[in-house]
Design a protein that fits this description.
7 helices, binds zinc ion
């Protein structure tokens, strides 16, 4: 970008033009911030990597709002440039105990559990790419993990690689300008223990995150998500602030 500064003397007769070339460019990233532990660690990582962070949270028909409340608090603490909370009623599609179809399992089940929300990450990433294109962000961050997880197909690296390619092909910015948007998955290959350790290093306020599939005052400690989280804190030999004294 070039700027021209004009100076005049006291009588307004002499002018001087100076050409300034600005090299500095602001880096921007959109982060999918659910309010869970993984998305919080991902958002903190992203915040250290970009100049401006745009947080995106969905009310997708979850049976409780605890996660969304945490997401809002995290967005404020992080100082996000903007934070959008969008309504996307996937409960009208159904197909998941997370949106009220059947009970949330209290013990491990075979195969992909009933908490799977069909195409959730594909839908969320599409919206994140749309916003990234509008605000001029080069990166979309998502806290998927394919190590200690519930086996959801849309958390796997092969899905992320394929959807990144597909969404860029659907982007005006890429087709006309040749500049793609990348999907950043900083915790995809980390164990849950390593994610907690990274969160500690980044000073993530774990007390402002919510992993439990149920929405009580305190985590239920029996659902899949609670079990995976509890094991990670145990392996790190620290107490989860959410269950302290419980
Ligand atoms: Zn739980």
């Amino acid at each position: 970008m070039e700027n021209t500064i004009r100076c005049k003397d006291a009588r307004g007769k002499t002018s001087l033009s100076i050409e300034i070339e600005r090299k500095y460019e602001v880096s921007k990233g959109v982060v999918l911030l659910s309010g869970g532990l993984d998305s919080a660690v991902t958002a903190y990582q992203a915040n250290g990597e970009v100049d401006k962070l745009y947080a995106l949270t969905f009310r997708y028909g979850q049976v409780h709002s605890k996660e969304v409340e945490c997401a809002l608090q995290l967005g404020l603490i992080l100082g996000a440039e903007r934070h959008k909370v969008l309504d996307l009623p996937l409960d009208m599609i159904g197909g998941s105990s997370l949106v009220g179809v059947g009970d949330i399992p209290k013990e491990p089940t075979q195969g992909i559990p009933s908490t799977w929300v069909p195409q959730r990450n594909a839908i969320f990433l599409s919206v994140a790419f749309a916003w990234a294109e509008v605000v001029g962000a080069d990166k979309v961050y998502i806290g998927v993990n394919s190590v200690d997880y519930s086996g959801y197909p849309d958390c796997r690296p092969e899905f992320i690689g394929a959807v990144e390619k597909a969404l860029n092909l659907a982007s005006k910015r890429f087709v006309e300008g040749g500049t793609g948007i990348s999907i950043e998955t900083p915790i995809i290959h980390l164990s849950k223990k390593k994610i907690v350790e990274l969160g500690l290093k980044l000073k993530v306020p774990f007390e402002r995150t919510w992993s439990c599939y149920a929405g009580g005052d305190r985590p239920c400690r029996v659902c899949d998500s609670c079990r995976i989280r509890a094991r990670a804190f145990e392996e790190c030999s620290i107490e989860d602030p959410l269950v302290k004294g419980g």
